[in-house]
Amino acid sequence: MSDAALSSLDEASYHPRLAATPGIALVLFGSPECGGCRVAERRLPSAAPPGTSLFKVDVRQATGLARALDIFHLPELLLYRDGHFHARLRCEISAAALASALHAALSRPAEEEP
Known about the structure:
Helices cover 32% and strands 25% of the residues. The protein is of the alpha/beta class. It has one domain (7-106): Glutaredoxin. A five-stranded mixed β-sheet has the order 1-3-2-4-5. The protein is globular, with a radius of gyration of 13 Å. The N and C termini lie far apart (29 Å).
């Protein structure tokens, strides 16, 4: 499990920071007002596999980015591999569910970033 905190990203840092991140990165889009988002943010560090880079985006502060990436439901979890978008993950934020979703997503070709 990863024990790192989630690093905040905004519209200016999103793409450059992810492009410079090797390996697997998960980006959680959420809002402090969203109860599910708060739970996801609390659970993600302990549920993510070791070595996974973890980021979060507050959609209140990055509405343009959320619109550009077609983020309509919160929380939303995006998977990046070696700095490139790979897939949206729709799963429970638990170690088992996240491991299964990551395995399934990474076994398929990368999707186009919205």
